[in-house]
Amino acid sequence: MRWPTQSLLLSSLAAVISLSSCSRTGQPEVHVDGRPYSGVTLNVGIEAAPVDIALRNRLPRIREELGVEIQIVPLEYGTLFEKILTDFITGTGSFDIVVYFARYNGDYMGAGFLRSLDEYVQEYPPDYLDILPAFRKLYSEWEGRIYALPYDGDYFLLYYRKDLFGHPEERSDFKQRYGYDLGPPDTWDEWLDIAEFFTRKPGETLAGEVLTDNFYGISEYWGRARAYAWFLNRFGSYSGLFFDENMEPRINSPSAVAALEHCVQSFRYNTPGPLGHTWWNVREDLLFGKVAMIFGWPDVGKAAHEPTQSKVVGKVGFAPSPGVRDPDTGAIRRATALVSGRVMAVSQSCQNPEAAYQVIRLMSSQDVSMTNISEANSHCDPFRLHHLDHPELWKVRFDGLEEYLSASRAALDVGFPELTIPGAEEYHDVLSRHVQEALQRSISPQQALDGVATEWRAITRRRGLEAQRRAWKSQLSAMQQLNLVPSD
């Protein structure tokens, strides 16, 4: 993807961010004690630790600069969506600020439960154009209006054992067996070769040492909650698209079937029990030295170089996810899954919306968010150009940080988002369930995705075809504007 030009960005945001028309200086009026919102208390609904760590770490600064007292309401991962939605629907008003996965935007923003931030963005600019375009257009906006600012910019990277990939004997054996040099895979076909090559049994040799335990090529998250995401990381690079412009599912197209067939082939090189895996299992498989490579969220890159968490310190390399090579041109199409990033938004029931905006503006600001994303234990990931351009400002400095940031930029150039339309959670869950069936070989990939298409049509009818079509067209248009998918 090519980032849109600065002039195009400015013109598209002119109605919202017209600095010449600001009625204030970009700073709130100061209270008598020097803090503009003294006496204000805000309730923040957010997923419990480790997700809320970044917010907890910033409470003193929020109190010092704004005068706001924050009451954190920790929510469990599995019930966060329903608890926030129920609060919105019933009008209970438990939350002034909510921090949530951007895939809920259709259900929260689209249903009118969140307050538009356009007025406050105009008066108190939040360095909005520094936010990476995909996170801005697809995470923070709904139908041309700004409703949120990023908290955590999630995307996938490839992590590989560079000590094994660079070992002379392994390189020689691989070249003899597959006919090309061993390195981080550029294509999904190469991913399969490398996964097969590094899958070893006790008694076999790995990098000159005899194994006493099984060693695996890969580890992937095929548990029900995120099986769809590990499929999506292939789906986009195989030129997949969720629906056509009329909301007819394309999830069972030949390209989608090819992506799922690859998942099935990859499954045999996985560590044991992948259908029950969570992200923590995949992380540990890499950090404990059980696998040659994984792909997943950026937090593991920081953890891999932290001795208290990792047994492979200094041995992990970074690259963008593989892609699919065009047989005619030789070009490689990559499409990195942008899955599970979190945003901060202000609820309609909030009685102090300006103060709430100032809190999320501060948390999303260049300097505060730089601290949040670069601390070892925060589990927040880059979402600004500033984060990628300034390795010298990172709190956690490790050998390979520049490589990590370069791989991140390359991955974000070709980001492929999950659904953000109303009912996205339901659509994704159906996809995960059928992907799992294909992985177990109880049905074929084509049968699995045909089943997804049938259920997706039913979800769309139940939610209203016209409303869903409008929401999907809006997401598709944003994806096309950002060159994430081709324009017809």
Describe the structure in your own words.
This protein is α/β, with parallel strands linked by helices. The strands form six sheets. A five-stranded mixed beta sheet has the order 2-1-3-16-6, with helices on both faces. The chain has a four-stranded mixed beta sheet with strand order 10-11-7-12. The chain is 42% helix and 14% strand. It is globular, with a radius of gyration of 23 Å.
Helix-strand makeup class: alpha/beta
User: First CA to last CA: what distance?
Assistant: 16 Å
What is the H level of CATH, i.e. the homologous superfamily of the largest domain? Periplasmic binding protein-like II
Tell me the helix content. Answer: 40-55%
Main sheet makeup = 5 strands, mixed
Q: Based on DSSP secondary structure assignment, what is the total number of beta strands? A: 17
Query: What's the CATH topology name of the largest domain?
Result: D-Maltodextrin-Binding Protein, domain 2
Briefly, what CATH class of the largest domain?
A: Alpha Beta
List the strand order in the largest sheet: 2-1-3-16-6
Low-pLDDT segments, ≥5 res: 1-25
Number of domains: 2
> How much β-strand is present in the residues?
5-15%
Which CATH-level-2 architecture of the largest domain? 3-Layer(aba) Sandwich
What's the total helix number? 20
Shape: globular
Taking all Cα atoms into account, the compactness measure Rg is 23 Å
Please state the average pLDDT score: 92
